[in-house]
Design goal:
The protein has 104 residues and is mainly alpha-helical. It is 61% helix and 0% strand. The chain has helices spanning 2-20, 41-44, 58-97. The longest helix is centred in the C-terminal third of the chain and has 40 residues, at 58-97.
Length: 104
């Protein structure tokens, strides 16, 4: 009788855990890859802010500030491009999975 009860309990546990596997969220097949976006090369480049030279003059300082401002602007544009690419890729993945953005 004990062997019968043990086998019955094992069967009940196996059936109950196997039936729960069908209730999960639908997922994409493992062989299909989600859409990807390529990060631009400019977003990967390091920023090169000019350093102050030892023999700095006033006209040289004005040129240095202009060069630094241009480099900071270039870096900010490259950073924003990287952020937009990242956010766009996540939006593409959400659309590909058929989910609404912002819901869990």
């Amino acid at each position: 009788m004990t062997r019968f009860l043990s086998l019955t309990m094992a069967l009940i546990c196996a059936l109950s855990s196997a039936s729960c596997a069908g209730f999960g969220l639908p997922s994409a097949p493992a062989t299909v890859t989600p859409p990807r976006r390529e990060l631009p090369a400019t977003a990967r480049q390091a920023c090169q802010i000019p350093a102050l030279p030892a023999d700095l003059t006033y006209p040289g300082l004005k040129l240095l500030f202009a060069a630094a401002a241009a480099e900071i602007l270039r870096c900010d544009v490259a950073r924003q491009t990287g952020v937009d690419t990242h956010d766009g890729e996540h939006a593409d993945e959400d659309a590909w999975l058929g989910r609404r953005v912002g819901t869990n």
